[in-house]
Amino acid sequence: SDIGSQRERVVTEEEWIQKWEMGNIGFHKEQRHPLLQKYLDVLLNGRTGLRIFFPLCGKAVEMKWLADMGHSVVGVEVSEQAVKDFFSEHSLPYCEEPVSEISGAKVFQSTSGNISLYCCSIYDLSSLIVGKFDGVWDRGALVAVNPCDRQRYASLMINLVEKNSSYLLVTVSYDPNKHKGPPFYVPESEVKSLFG
């Protein structure tokens, strides 16, 4: 698969943190994603009280929406600014604690207990720390991951999900020679080779 000049492109975690601090977050959407609304029944599959994972969650509004439906939401985000903005913009009280297994990491948990956002590198997580998930909403994670890290990312995600889980993935399609990314172009063939 030809991803053009993007193959070698790397965006550091510091650059992502800086985007949040500078308010350069055009990737954040204020409204629920129409594809999640359209395919919500696929994600939930008639089940209630699910554990749903939001990789590279930012301050996604869908986290509160799903938590309000009675699901348990866990996200991971490298930017503490994004995590704190999520709780303040939804007027949700929370507590903040260090994650003993990950140096420098924190978890921000709503006082209601149904939203837990880890502030750390996604690659520091494991199922031993966060458990396993019934569903994943990947709206902007795979397309934000550096192309050289996709296999590592996919392996982690596969390890974080239960056998009967649902994984909703949104990608973008464009000519990768005309845009350096992110979002990065991930062809369907690569999605299949990563996730089977």
Descriptive notes:
This protein has helices at residues 13-22, 34-38, 40-44, 62-68, 80-89, 127-130, 150-160, 188-195, and strands at 51-54, 72-77, 94-98, 106-110, 115-119, 133-138, 161-169. Helix content is 31%, strand content 20%. The model has no long low-confidence stretch (mean pLDDT 95). It is of the alpha/beta class. It is globular, with a radius of gyration of 16 Å. Helix 7 (150-160) links the parallel strand 6 and strand 7 (161-169). It has one domain (13-195): Vaccinia Virus protein VP39 (Rossmann fold, 3-Layer(aba) Sandwich). The protein has a seven-stranded mixed beta sheet with strand order 3-4-5-2-1-6-7.
Q: What's the structural blueprint in terms of helices and strands?
A:
Layout: H1 13-22, H2 34-38, H3 40-44, E1 51-54, H4 62-68, E2 72-77, H5 80-89, E3 94-98, E4 106-110, E5 115-119, H6 127-130, E6 133-138, H7 150-160, E7 161-169, H8 188-195
Parallel strand pairs: 1-2, 1-6, 2-5, 6-7
Antiparallel strand pairs: 3-4, 4-5
EC number: 2.1.1.67
Main location: cytoplasm
GO biological process, one term: methylation
Distinctive features:
single chain, 196 residues, alpha/beta, Rossmann fold, seven-stranded mixed beta sheet, 31% helix, globular
Looking at the structure, what is the overall shape? globular
Helix-strand pattern = HHHEHEHEEEHEHEH
Can you count the helices? 8
Strand order of the biggest β-sheet: 3-4-5-2-1-6-7
Q: Can you give the mean pLDDT? A: 95
State the total count of DSSP E strands.
7
List the domain count as a whole number. 1
InterPro entries: SAM-dependent_MTases_sf, Thiopurine_S-MeTrfase, TPMT
GO molecular function: thiopurine S-methyltransferase activity
Subcellular location: Cytoplasm
Main location: cytoplasm
